[in-house]
Design goal:
The protein is α/β, with parallel strands linked by helices and 370 residues long. The protein folds into 2 domains: 7-83, GMP Synthetase, Chain A, domain 3; 100-366, Rossmann fold (3-Layer(aba) Sandwich), CATH 3.40.50.300. The protein has 12 helices and 14 strands. The chain has helices at residues 7-14, 57-69, 115-128, 145-149, 194-206, 226-234, 248-263, 294-301, 314-322, 326-329, 334-356, 363-366, and strands spanning 32-37, 42-49, 76-83, 100-107, 133-137, 156-160, 164-168, 171-172, 175-179, 213-219, 239-244, 268-279, 286-287, 306-311. 46% of the residues are buried.
Length: 370
């Protein structure tokens, strides 16, 4: 009869299991919780990942089971996979948004490249992966996010003892949403100068009850102006996802946005090439109306990762007009799967940046995105 395995023996076995991205074992990383070893050889354990959107979750679970089963005396293994997104520390010049772990800016430097579409589907995809997500529509002059998410409710008010009156954002598709579109009537334009833009960004950050969020995705306006600078000054931005289309006229402006984020010390998470290609009816060949490999060239130049090449399909536009992002409207489609993979990569890379504290330009050599 086999003897009962000890807890120390099981922990030693788990020290052989590494997080493939962080390159440390799960015990050292503090990911092993609630380990129980029964007298009958049954072992249960909770593995706490750094993000619910971890693309390597299945591999880590399999490695944990195999390591424990190799311990003499173990008869059964039960693994519960869990996640706790770790909070980014705020620089001294900026203030945390209460309850928000990571702020991810989606930017382009240029209009018309589908930045809001990427932000909406990224946020929704993160929520579908199990994360707690908010979406701040910082495009004050063109607040399209409420339409694209199909939000009909307006924010309500609540009173906080420490922070005073706060706006409570409505929720759509599992995403909390705040936008200037809730605060102006219909097609009325917003005609504001810089100080007023700074004020509204500050209000959206610190006078909104975001609750507990793993990720707050911020849809940035085009350009490299007041809103971008205000966000970088007001809150600790974990990183920026840069959206471009393949052609040079788009790349020119995105390169400027790269340099702007560099100056305000916001790391670049990676590049998304939107409207990368389309497939015509009855043909499986990829066609590139705006050229090809522009996003790849950009990522190489700035030593970051090409996170996604998103196809042009009518369902993306239709979903935006209907208020049902394509990841919800047509979840099995090629483009929806590409957005889901993008969400996992962004979550993965954010975890690496947070845990390792490395130079963002080196993350492409550390992460595994294949």
């Amino acid at each position: 009869m086999s003897s009962r395995p000890s807890q120390e023996a099981v922990l030693n076995a788990l020290r052989t299991v590494q997080d493939p991205d962080l390159r440390k074992d799960l015990v050292t990383l503090g990911m092993i919780k609630d380990l129980e070893v029964g007298s009958d050889g049954r072992v249960s354990v909770r593995v706490v990942l750094t993000t619910p959107a971890c693309p390597l979750k299945a591999k880590i679970e399999a490695d944990v089971k195999a390591a424990i089963l190799a311990v003499p005396g173990v008869t059964e293994v039960r693994v519960k996979m869990d996640a706790e997104v770790r909070r980014t520390a705020a620089p001294t010049q900026s203030a945390q948004i209460p309850g928000v772990s990571h702020i991810i800016a989606v930017s382009s430097g240029k209009g018309g490249v589908g930045k809001s579409t990427v932000a909406v589907n990224l946020a929704t995809a993160l929520a579908l992966e199990g994360a707690r997500v908010g979406l701040m529509d910082a495009d004050v002059y063109g607040p399209n996010v409420p339409t694209m998410l199909g939000v009909t409710d307006r924010p309500t008010m609540t009173e906080d003892a420490a922070r005073g009156e706060l706006l409570v954002p409505p929720t759509a598709h599992g995403v909390k949403v705040m936008s200037m579109g809730f605060l102006v009537d219909g097609d009325q334009p917003v005609v504001w100068r810089g100080p007023m833009l700074h004020s509204v960004v500050s209000q959206f950050c610190h006078k909104v009850d975001w609750g507990s969020l793993d990720y707050l995705v911020v849809d940035m306006p085009p350009g490299t102006g007041d809103v971008q600078l205000s966000l970088a000054q007001l809150v600790p931005v974990t990183g920026a996802v840069m959206v471009t289309t393949p052609q040079e006229v788009s790349l020119q402006d995105v390169r400027k946005a790269f340099h702007m984020f560099e100056k305000v010390r916001v790391p670049i998470i990676g590049v998304v090439e939107n409207m990368s290609y389309f497939r015509c009816d009855g043909c499986d060949k990829r066609h590139h109306p705006f050229g090809s490999e522009g996003g790849k060239t950009l990522a190489t130049k700035f030593r970051t990762e090409l996170l996604a090449e998103l196809p042009m399909v009518p369902a993306v536009r239709e979903g935006g007009d209907e208020g049902r992002p394509v990841v919800v409207r047509d979840p099995g489609s090629e483009v929806a799967q590409a957005f889901r993979e993008l969400a996992r990569k962004v979550a993965q890379k954010t975890s690496i940046m947070d845990a390792e504290g490395v130079d963002p330009s080196q993350i492409v050599q550390i992460g595994r995105f294949n």
